[in-house]
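no rush on this but wanted to send it before i forget. what follows is a protein written twice so to speak, once as letters and once as structure tokens for the fold. mainly i need to know what kind of three dimensional shape the backbone takes. thanks a lot i owe you, the record is right below.
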Amino acid sequence: MLVAGRALQGVTAAVMAPQALASVQAIFPEGEKPLALSIYGAIFGLAAVVGQASGGVLISLDLMGLGWRAIFLINLPVAMLVLLFGIPLLKETRARDAHRLDLGGMALSMLTLGALLVPLIEGREAGWPLWSWVLLVGAPLLAWLFWRYETRLAGAGGAPLLDPSALRVPGLGRALLIALLFYSIGSFFLLFSVYLQGALQVTPLQTGLAFLPFGAGFLFGPLSTPFCRRLFGAYVNAIGMGLEVVGFLGLAGLIAATLTGVHPAPMPLAALLFVIGFGQGLALPTLMAMVTAGSRRTFRHDRRDGQLDSPGQHRA
């Protein structure tokens, strides 16, 4: 039940996330998009503060004896607020021509990712059985089949899940590689939470509050991006990700000291988490701008299934 529920959350989140960036591109004029993307990034920081802290609070309160299960209930009032205010307030945008979902591409992409991730997650604990190696060997073949399918669909005038022509747009491939590295930080939250509670014997509430400096940095980073862009120009993204590297190296040093029995001091730990969050928040708006700018260039050209009305009206 838990795995099925999380899978449903993942599917719906994957549907929503591209629409947010597409809406920013469609609704705001060019001069306002940098500020809109900065606010978009700041909301991530606010969510990091509220999410981590409220998760620890809910587990500690043990509402109605639900324990950790209460963390899922926090999504319900948020979803209700989105429904109540999003529908009347957000401007509806749509492309001139509707496109059919690429169900074949979706299935092949899920099979490819599953063949890669399932053995990496479960293989070691299961003793690396034969099926895990079969899946790992089959993952490149599935990826090739997915790429061939998408190429043929694009050539036939369809709407592929991943348009191969997108990677030929100057700068977009590089931006997507940076995005891959950027979002690889996602595993940090789980691993650091396990470290705090398992190695340092910290309570769930204290664990949630420990992430507050990170969230504060992630909140202020995007808001500082317009100012930093005027100072450093195109180097803002590199500076932000560089700050992340510095923060993680410092955090690794603090954690290494715990092997000698010395727990990390609260203030240096908080400062390093703030640096990591600030660096990520600083880099996020410029990264989103690079990716969406490349997407606009990709779909601005004529296609057999119709020409898009404007750079803002593009498929997410």
